[in-house]
Amino acid sequence: MEIMRKRLANLLSVKSIVTIILTGVFAFMAVTGKISQDFMTIYAVVIAFYFGTQSQKVQDAVDQQTGDSHE
Fold this sequence. Notes:
elongated
């Protein structure tokens, strides 16, 4: 139950909210067939940033558990 609370709290962070909203807009634009190239560029950057930071958090947690550092 504690894990679910932490995940919900993380989901409510600003970057997560922005990513979720942009994904909703992307889905709507895809269904209506009105995706512009400018929006695709912005969306790709936001998604890359979001998943890049998530991946970095996971890597930092693994490094912390194993005692490794990439300095």
